[in-house]
Amino acid sequence: MENVFDYEDIQLIPAKSMVNSRSECDTTVSLGGRTFKLPVVPANMQTIIDEKVASYLAENGYFYIMHRFEPEKRLSFMKDMKARGLYSSISVGVKEEEYRFIQQIADEQLSPEYITIDIAHGHSNAVIQMIQHIKEYLPQSFVIAGNVGTPEAVRELEHAGADATKVGIGPGKVCITKIKTGFGTGGWQLAALRWCAKAASKPIIADGGIRTHGDIAKSFRFGATMVMIGSLFAGHEESPGKTIENEKDGMLYKEYFGSASEFQKGEKKNVEGKRILVEHKGSLEDTLKEMEQDLQSSISYAGGNKLEAIRHVDYVVVKNSIFNGDKVY
Ligand SMILES: NC(=O)C1=CN([C@@H]2O[C@H](COP(=O)(O)OP(=O)(O)OC[C@H]3O[C@@H](n4cnc5c(N)ncnc54)[C@H](OP(=O)(O)O)[C@@H]3O)[C@@H](O)[C@H]2O)C=CC1
Ligand SMILES: Nc1nc2c(ncn2[C@@H]2O[C@H](COP(=O)(O)O)[C@@H](O)[C@H]2O)c(=O)[nH]1
């Protein structure tokens, strides 16, 4: 791969506006037969989403993916969402018990609308077999498979039956995969997204490395249909991470830890994630509104009134930096 770049290395080039107000610009996106207000989904991590946040997002027209780290709660979560007329979107892993879980969901006729297979190295037979298992028992569910970082992986998972793939190995804010293993798309996530999108025939979810709202538009330009974001959603009052007060200045912080961190796993085995504190930043609703306004503005700069306009804008590469603004460790 040559000419790699990341979010901070790209600027999109404005085109003549066709709207009189940014409020005319439509940020909605379709995925799996539903339309959502934004092409954004909070990361399926335990410090980012819980049942309450998931319900809020579903009720208000946003996409969500529930995490898989409290497996005992998943059935009741789906039943509750169904009882309230809301869609279900859950995550699974690839271990033996997850196969039984899929069968159980099918036996109870719960059929969640979205199932995300969430493992670190998604280009694997383990994921291919799980896609096939889900498609056999729950053919109506929309399957998102990941994470991957190459066109070969996107093609193989699509061929196995995935309805969408999730791209991003190691660009996350609390990720240390790039440092511990030397592998991944950290530092060139946006170029990896473009590379994968060229091979994809189904939607791609760009996962990790989003640091500003402008990065959402950039992801869309380089082929994403949806963008998964952790760190920008970690600091809200509704975020499930612990709230921590700094004793010296009284400033409030929220904890944000990696799904492969010692904090998540409860042991120091194959750790590829860390824990950080992010500044408390008010309500989720405010951030979602601001994201919508910023994206409406992006669409207007792209010279259109729908998200699709962003796909066709020109861009320049302005510099390169391997850590995308993050501290190394
Ligand atoms: N997007 C990213 O860059 C990354 C995300 N994560 C997140 O951390 C969480 C935990 O992920 P994960 O450890 O995969 O989940 P699990 O602990 O559930 O592992 C899933 C399965 O995949 C195996 N496995 C894990 N890593 C690899 C690998 N590199 N090569 C081959 N097999 C592997 C595991 O076996 P065994 O443990 O015995 O190897 C296990 O059988 C997930 O939410 C994931 O999304 C983690 C790292 C990177
Ligand atoms: N390498 C690791 N990646 C992780 C871990 N936990 C989550 N993640 C990935 O990060 C994104 C969120 O990225 P952000 O830049 O928006 O904060 C998340 O969706 C996962 O794909 C981990 O422990 N290690």
Provide an overview of this structure.
The chain has 329 residues and is α/β, with parallel strands linked by helices. Helix content is 30%, strand content 17%. It is built from ten helices and 14 strands. It has helices at 51-59, 74-83, 96-107, 125-137, 151-160, 177-181, 189-199, 214-221, 262-265, 284-301, and strands spanning 10-12, 29-31, 34-36, 40-42, 89-92, 114-118, 142-148, 164-167, 204-207, 226-229, 243-245, 252-257, 275-279, 315-317. It has a seven-stranded parallel beta sheet. It is globular and about 55 Å long. The site of ligand LQESDW3C has 24 residues, from β10.
Concise overview:
The chain is of the alpha/beta class and 329 residues long. It is built from ten helices and 14 strands.
